[in-house]
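Progress note, sequence design subtask.
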């Protein structure tokens, strides 16, 4: 899942991003509204965690612009303005959910995951295929009853392949889904992670390379 966190309190923004990454999400961070609008114009995010009171470009304007162009990105407003009129106003301008500060981090994760499911075609939180079971809530995976000790990147790659339901997934899409913007697209990082994932999944082999196209489960 690809998430953008737009929050001007840098310590909070970085903590939120760090926590979401521990749940196998690819997270980018910006600290003002102009930066959020720029990232949203060039990258396809599943969820935007948006502070309303952003500098340079107010969060309300970021929200309205995103909704106006029909983006599939789901918006979670995260703000200290927590009164009922504030919540009604935020939802009325197109936000999908509203989380007042301070908040419990477990609730934030649950809300982001719920919005992420809504941004895609409806898929269950537990994915199964070829004897593989992947629980996106507990960040656990197994194959034929054998627990798989996966890194967060391996988990994210496997989740993307499972969600594709047998379709070929390009290396570029894996980069978009499982890594943040800081990854070098010209490295062999995808190939390395897929190789490690194959080894952990064991026999019979279930990830095939499609030359010139990508990978298929």
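Output:
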């Amino acid at each position: 899942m690809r998430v953008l966190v737009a929050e001007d309190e840098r310590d909070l923004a970085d903590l939120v991003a760090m926590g979401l990454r521990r749940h196998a999400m690819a997270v980018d961070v910006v600290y003002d509204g102009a930066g959020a609008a720029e990232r949203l114009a060039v990258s396809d995010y599943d969820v935007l965690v948006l502070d309303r009171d952003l500098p340079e470009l107010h969060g309300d304007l970021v929200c309205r612009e995103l909704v106006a162009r029909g983006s599939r990105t789901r918006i979670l407003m995260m703000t200290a303005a927590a009164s009922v009129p504030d919540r009604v106003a935020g939802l009325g301008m197109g936000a999908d959910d509203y989380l007042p500060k301070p908040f419990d981090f477990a609730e934030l994760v649950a809300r982001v995951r719920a919005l992420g499911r809504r941004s895609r075609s409806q898929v269950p939180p537990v994915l199964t295929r070829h004897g593989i079971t992947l629980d996106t809530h507990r960040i656990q995976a197994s194959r034929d009853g054998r627990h798989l000790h996966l890194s967060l990147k391996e988990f994210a790659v496997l989740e993307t392949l499972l969600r594709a339901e047998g379709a070929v997934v390009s290396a570029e899409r894996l980069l978009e889904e499982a890594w943040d913007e800081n990854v070098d697209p010209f490295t062999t990082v995808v190939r390395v992670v897929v190789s490690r994932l194959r080894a952990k999944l064991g026999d019979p082999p279930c990830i095939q390379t499609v030359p010139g196209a990508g990978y298929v489960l």
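Helices lie at 10-21, 33-42, 59-68, 84-92, 105-119, 152-163, 171-178, 189-201. Work on this subtask will continue into the next period as scheduled.
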